[in-house]
Amino acid sequence: MGDAEARIHAAEAETLSAHRSDPDAEPTTPRVATLGFVPTMGALHDGHATLIERAREQNDVVAVSIFVNPLQFGPGEDYDKYPRQPDEDLALLREYGVDIVFIPELEVMYPGGEPLVRVSSGRLGTMFEGAARPGHFDGVLTVVNKLFNVVVAAAGPHRGRAYFGQKDAQQVALVQRMVADFAIPLVVCPVAIVRDDDGLAMSSRNSYLDPEERKAALVLSRTLALLREEGLSRGYAGIDVDAARERISDRDGVDLEYLEIVDPKTFEAPVENSERATALAAIRVGGTRLIDNMDVI
Amino acid sequence: MGDAEARIHAAEAETLSAHRSDPDAEPTTPRVATLGFVPTMGALHDGHATLIERAREQNDVVAVSIFVNPLQFGPGEDYDKYPRQPDEDLALLREYGVDIVFIPELEVMYPGGEPLVRVSSGRLGTMFEGAARPGHFDGVLTVVNKLFNVVVAAAGPHRGRAYFGQKDAQQVALVQRMVADFAIPLVVCPVAIVRDDDGLAMSSRNSYLDPEERKAALVLSRTLALLREEGLSRGYAGIDVDAARERISDRDGVDLEYLEIVDPKTFEAPVENSERATALAAIRVGGTRLIDNMDVI
Q1: Which family does it belong to (chains A, B) (predicted)?
Q2: Cβ contacts (< 8 Å) between B172 and chain A: which residues?
Q3: Given this model, what pLDDT does residue A19 score?
């Protein structure tokens, strides 16, 4: 904490002195210290490392939060068994050169119990992951908004950047929507999915998979990669989504929840002026739910 | 705007120079410029003047917003006929010595239409005024949160105070709740109700009343004053709420919507450790809905 503050102050002092050294110089926009923020639920993996690296490249100070947020877990979901390894996480964060780590107890984030006033994610929060997990995105946005107010606001308005992995594409879309709708004075930076060598998108929940399940799960990323190839070579109309759905459903031990191609801003079917089209899917392998996505045009 | 910025910078410069003049001095908490913010829907009256005066006393810079927020009006409510008088308002604000005035067009506050992501006011938002006006408090909190992010955040965290009139007691409770639940880094300052000489609580909606209606409306504040007297002299148990309800209902031209005594933090019946108990009521006089409240212990 002391180091990080010193770094902010040093950056500001530099700005001030650069500004004052030559009173006749043209006024320039002062360079102020920026804060890069990576909110996580811990159980850090190389996907998180990539987010932190990006934050490090683009900012003077890097903050990471670790908080397994009960609001975003439904009844019967894996809140209790979600992997928690604070000691390993802290060692990694030290290694990554992170300046500020925020690991609040439940009572610090939600004193007096769960919050009464919350963020409501609207229609986009009821689709796909929101349909499978009612209330999930309200819980995500409620905690992310609060973390922004606690961690990023301290850097000052328009001095913060927040980093989110593109694996949770709907979360990225909703956080961007919230930042716009609430006029939160920071920038959301999505970061591309990081994959293991076999193609599986990195996720803390991959630790739930036994070797057989992990092998079965690969049908997800491989099918998305085929769709991407189809889209890039034959165009949007040449994509055979039904065949892809069958391919996943036919895999032993895998249940397909959904596979759709959407505009990743609206999560509706892409329209003529959509900038991107993304194939996104959720499967169940044993007791584990996995999601993944890839742009197809 | 230029003046206000200059004032913030001057205050900060003072702080810095005071800090640097004697390197051996004991470190003190630097005095930084603070911002007092009064969000309004315009049609300013002496109640607003009191909020602004308080903001002026307690802060270096005062900002006022004027925005008639459609999100907080239900279908069939008075959004279209709500009094709008920007020229008179601006003249008053100049007179009051306000530094920053924010009068956004609808398209500035809600570009692309109404926001998808909103603030949800929870159970407290469905009681009393929320029961009579479904969605009202979600709309209030959504715009207040956004105004905080636009206007107050610019001053920096923990440098802002926001002023709200106690007439809208439930609004005050919900904004305080939101600021706590969201960890918004500013302080909410409730300001006591301002009344006309006849006792009527000031409200922009009083302009809807004709002279007969205005006379009839006085039963509201007079009845609340009686309850307060009963409470102060005989204690909570000595308050006859039913008689008070009858007194209002018996007045020609007045319909009672509700009259209850509540803990103004929870809006539930006061309990042993409640700090305050407040009588709050809503009536209809002709086409106009009026609310008022008074502490009774």
Answers
A1: Belongs to the pantothenate synthetase family.
A2: none
A3: 40
User: Given this model, what pLDDT does residue B80 score?
Assistant: 96
- Spatial CB neighbours of A48, under 8 Å, sequence gap ≥ 6: A38, A40, A165
* Helices assigned H by DSSP within B22-83: 46-58
Superfamily of domain B204-295: Pantoate-beta-alanine ligase, C-terminal domain (3.30.1300.10)
Our answer to whether residue B9 is catalytic in this structure is: no
For residue A4, what pLDDT is reported? 57
The architecture of the domain spanning B2-21+29-191 is 3-Layer(aba) Sandwich (3.40)
Instruction: Report the distance separating Cα B261 and Cα B279, nearest Å.
Output: 4
How far are the Cα atoms of A157, A159, A176, A269, A270 from residue A36, in angstroms, in the given order?
13, 9, 16, 33, 32
Q: What is the DSSP letter of B26?
A: P
Residue of chain B whose Cα is closest to the Cα of A266? B116
Do B155 and B118 form a contact (C-beta atoms < 8 A)?
A: no
Asked whether the beta carbons of residue A181 and residue B116 sit closer than 8 angstroms, the reply is yes
Taking an 8 Å cut-off on Cβ atoms, the answer to whether B117 and A177 are in contact is yes
Helices (H), B72-118: 86-95, 106-109
CB pairs under 8 A between A and B: 86
B232 has binding-site annotation = no
> Does B58 show up as a binding residue in the annotation?
no
A115, A124, A156: residue with CB nearest B156: A156
The ipTM value here is 0.88
